[in-house]
Each structure stands twice: as C-alpha cells, then as structure tokens.
Amino acid sequence: MRKSHPLRRAVLVGAATVSGIVLLLSLKPPTDPASASASGLPPQQSAAAQAPQGGSGAQRTGTQDITGDAVRTPYGSVQVRLTVSDGRIVQATAVQAPQGGTSGQKTQLAVPRLNQAAVAAQSADIDTVSGATYTSNGYKQSLQSALDKMKASGGSSGSPDSGAAQARTLTGKAVRTPYGPVQVRITVSGGRITKAEAVQAPQGGTSGQKTQLAVPRLNQAAVAAGSADIDVVSGATYTSNGYKQSLQSALDQAGG
C-alpha cells in the first residue's frame, strides 16, 4: 500500500496539470485585440479618415488674391486687390485710395460702387463715378493691371464672355412712393444677380440726397443676397421699400 501511494499521487498531479493547460488554451482569444482597442480603428480606416483634410485644402487653393499696380492720382494712390475663384472675380477691394477731407469723402462715395461694378462686369470696363473722376480712373487702371496678372497666372478671363451670352436683363415694375417712383433693373447670369441698378428713384432736394445715399447700398445688397430679402437703408425707408418691391417683381420675371 505504501508503494502504490506515490504512484497514485503522481497520476493525480499529472491529470491536474493537463486539465489546467486545456483550460488556459480554451480561455486564450484567437487574435490579440490590443492594437485594435488602442487605435479604435483598423489602420486602413484611420488613413481614410484623414483624406478629407487633404481634399479641403485642395479646394482652398482654387481661390487667390491678386493685387494690381498702385496708380498715382493728384489726390493720392489707388490700388485694387481682387479675390478670384474658378476664373471669376468674387470680390474687389481698394487697398489704397485717397484719404482725408474732401478726397476721403469722395473715396467713401466712389469705392463701394467701383468694387461692385468690378465684380458685376468681370472687367475694367466700368463707369466712372461722377464727382470722383481721378479716383475712378486710378481704380480702373489698377483693376486692369490686376486682371492682366490674373491672365498671366492662368486665371481664366474668357469665362465672363461665355457667361455674357446667357445673361439676361430684367426690369421690375415701377413702384410709387410718396416722393417718386422706384424701378429696378437687374442683370441675371447663371441663375445669379450680377448687377442691380435703379432706373428710377426719387430726385431733387432731400429726396435726391437720400437716393444717393440709399441706392448704391441697395444695389450692392441685391447682388450680395441674390434676392429681395435685403435691409432697409436707415433714413430712406420709402425708397428702400419701393426698391425691394420692384426688385422682387424683376426676380419674379427671372423665376427667382
């Protein structure tokens, strides 16, 4: 009996060892999830998630700023900067213009109109602002030099010509106000308003002064908004409301 006891003990120990090994093997996962749990995504998906960042950067490179030459006038230099996207002018800014006294007043009057005209015309063939001839001419020269640089850099200048063939001019109805009728004409190209102007507006005395104040702002707002949902100019409520009504009637003709 004493001789068989150690043998039986060895058998029991061996059986326990085998059982333990089998149990450990059954608990071990078939793959190691450590790397997946650390990243949250497989390597292929992580790389794909970064791709849109590169794509959005490529889109931004399609927009560029081009600054024209500084043109001297008797009252100061004029220099124009264009923002160009997909071969079209999307913004025009005067980075230099005459300042101080009467010259500054004329700049405040003329430059917003010239900026708007440059975007609408897509060229330097724009009207001179009355009372600001030197500033207007300097603006147009600097604008043309910026356009020349745009062509040289490969920016398309032919797109405005092709778009011109599809442009339509629509005149809204004349809207009566207590101070005179207001009537708006718009140019529409590619489904967008590219130019807005008042062909009728109150004139003479205080009414004329309000027209000079309000109409350029309303024209600019109409082009920017692409609709008649624009703000009333403070101090020119009747003219503004008449403008908006006539603008809406023109848009109705365009189907917008």
Q: How many angstroms separate the termini?
A: 108 Å
Per the CATH scheme, the topology name of the domain at 63-152 is: Sufe protein. Chain: A
CATH architecture of the domain at 63-152: Alpha-Beta Complex
The percentage of residues in β strands lies in 15-25%
**What is the makeup of the main sheet?**
4 strands, antiparallel
Domain FMN-binding: 74-150, 178-254
Biased composition (Low complexity): 33-53, 152-167
Pfam families: FMN_bind
Protein name: FMN-binding protein
Task: Please describe what this structure looks like.
It comes from Streptomyces thermogriseus. InterPro entries: FMN-bd, TAT_signal. This is FMN-binding protein. This protein has about 260 residues and is α+β, with helices and mostly antiparallel strands. Among the domains are: about 65-150, Sufe protein. Chain: A (Alpha-Beta Complex), CATH 3.90.1010; about 165-255, Sufe protein. Chain: A (Alpha-Beta Complex). Helices cover about 50% and strands about 20% of the residues. It contains 8 helices and 7 strands. The chain has helices at about 5-25, 35-40, 45-60, 100-120, 135-150, 160-165, 205-225, 235-255, and strands spanning about 65, 70-75, 75-85, 90-95, 170, 185-190, 190-200. The strands form 2 sheets. Strands 1, 2, 3 and 4 form a 4-stranded antiparallel β-sheet that branches. The protein has a 3-stranded antiparallel β-sheet with strand order 5-6-7. The longest helix has 24 residues, at about 5-25. It is extended and about 125 Å long. The N and C termini lie far apart (about 110 Å).
